[in-house]
Amino acid sequence: MRAQCSECGHINSNNRVSQSAFICRNCGVVAHADRNASHNIARKGEAAWTAGRESRVPATP
Ligand SMILES: [Zn+2]
């Protein structure tokens, strides 16, 4: 399965060495797999939140 490093963004199925362990083959970070995944989700959520702060509603004359 795809596993993305929350530190460097490297994606490699070999990063996920077991159900619970994550070791990045690029930068060497060691983390619990679910904790690493939560960082990835948090980053996506923050990006969506930041983008949503700019209103797309057209200005009324
Ligand atoms: Zn990494």
Structure notes:
This protein is of the alpha+beta class and 61 residues long. The protein has one domain (1-47). Helices cover 33% and strands 10% of the residues. The protein contains 1 helix and 2 strands. It has one helix spanning 33-52; strands at residues 21-23, 30-32. It has a two-stranded antiparallel ribbon. The protein is elongated. The model has no long low-confidence stretch (mean pLDDT 88). Bound molecules: zinc ion (ZN). The site of zinc ion (ZN) has 8 residues, from loops. Zinc ion binds at residues 5, 7-8, 10, 24, 26-27, 29.
What is the topological layout?
Layout: E1 21-23, E2 30-32, H1 33-52
Antiparallel strand pairs: 1-2
Bound molecules: zinc ion (ZN).
Zinc ion binds at residues 5, 7-8, 10, 24, 26-27, 29.
Main attributes?
1 helix; alpha+beta; two-stranded antiparallel sheet; single chain; 61 residues; binds zinc ion
> Which percent range describes the beta-strand content?
5-15%
Structural class by sheet pairing and helices = alpha+beta
* Number of strand elements: 2
Query: What is the ordering of alpha helices and beta strands?
Result: EEH
What's the helical proportion of residues? 25-40%
Number of domains: 1
Strand arrangement, major sheet: 1-2
Separate helix tally:
1
Would you identify the regions where 5 or more consecutive residues have pLDDT less than 50?
A: none
- State Rg: 16 Å
Query: Kindly, what is the distance between the CA atoms of the first and last residues, rounded to a whole number of angstroms?
Result: 51 Å
Question: Which molecules are bound in this entry?
Answer: zinc ion
Largest sheet: 2 strands, antiparallel
Average pLDDT, rounded to a whole number, is 88
| Approximate shape | elongated
